[in-house]
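Hi V.,

Quick status before I head out on leave. The structure for the redesign project is tokenized and pasted below; the design run finished overnight.
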């Protein structure tokens, strides 16, 4: 058993008061971990945490992942999120899995998440030395906001104008321009890039955005094309959050990668939603009418 309930309540209450008034407007010691450096940070720090994107809107589900070194699992993990003015918006407490990994979700649709700006996520297990901070930003809407993605991410636009961030890492050289599109109908992720002296590029594809699964829900291979030609790729270590695939970069410098999978995040525009509602309503009316006829007969 950990600490008694009353002591735990006091610790959480003290944490809330302290963070509400002491958290700076800008988190200078926050760390946003690139996807390809997660393992490196796991080795460096006793506890680490990262989010599946850097920017969200007020109708998002933030997927948070973390790692607590197994030798440090003597106390539960306390996660606290503060808003741009330093007020606490949520507190969660949990324990890590046997291998040290942990994950949880944050829903930004509540009234406490109404402010735009930089939010700070702090996780701590026991002593102050086992503490890690990261940050993310909330904006009014992600639709059409191309600049919301980070430096090492490709802004990828869905059919409805929603932007998804695809992290990447190049082995050498320079990437001068990048843009992407996601077609949820054809299950195709298209990435248009231009650079020079690049040997290979690794994409960290979020599973919630795009994936390839077999009928038994196991990972299946992507079909990858480079400038219209089918090419092989190397799948690096992947996890439950994303898949890491490495592709050779052509010497021409300009390339269009088309990655075809089996699953893409569904997108419904306002017209599609309206049609769906009308269709469902029509079905209900027809069913009701048939039911009445059967009863009368």
């Amino acid at each position: 058993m950990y600490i008694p309930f009353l002591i735990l309540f006091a610790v959480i209450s003290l944490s809330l008061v302290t963070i509400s008034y002491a958290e700076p407007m800008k988190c200078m010691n926050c760390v946003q971990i690139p996807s390809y450096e997660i393992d490196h940070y796991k080795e460096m720090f006793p506890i680490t945490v990262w989010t599946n994107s850097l920017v969200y809107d007020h109708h998002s589900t933030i997927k948070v992942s973390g790692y607590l070194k197994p030798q440090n699992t003597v106390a539960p993990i306390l996660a606290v999120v503060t808003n741009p003015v330093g007020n606490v918006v949520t507190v969660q407490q949990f324990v890590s899995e046997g291998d040290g990994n942990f994950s949880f979700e944050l829903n930004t649709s509540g009234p406490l998440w109404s402010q735009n700006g930089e939010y700070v996520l702090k996780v701590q297990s026991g002593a102050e030395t086992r503490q890690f901070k990261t940050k993310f930003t909330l904006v009014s809407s992600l639709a059409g906001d191309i600049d919301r993605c980070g430096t090492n991410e490709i802004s990828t636009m869905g059919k409805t104008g929603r932007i998804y961030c695809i992290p990447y890492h190049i082995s050498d050289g320079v990437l001068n321009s990048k843009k992407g599109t996601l077609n949820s109908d054809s299950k195709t992720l298209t990435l248009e890039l231009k650079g020079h002296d690049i040997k290979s590029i690794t994409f960290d594809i979020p599973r919630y955005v795009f994936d390839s699964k077999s009928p038994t829900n196991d990972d299946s291979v992507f079909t990858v094309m480079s400038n219209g030609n089918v090419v092989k790729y190397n799948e690096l270590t992947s996890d439950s959050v994303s898949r890491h695939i490495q592709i050779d970069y052509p010497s021409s410098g300009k390339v269009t990668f088309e990655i075809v999978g089996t699953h893409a995040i569904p997108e419904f525009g306002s017209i599609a939603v309206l049609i769906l509602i009308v269709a469902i309503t029509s079905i209900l009316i027809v069913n009701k009418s048939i039911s009445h006829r059967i009863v009368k007969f």
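Above is the designed sequence. Confidence is low (pLDDT under 50) at residues 1-24, 269-277.

G. will cover questions while I'm gone.

Best,
W.
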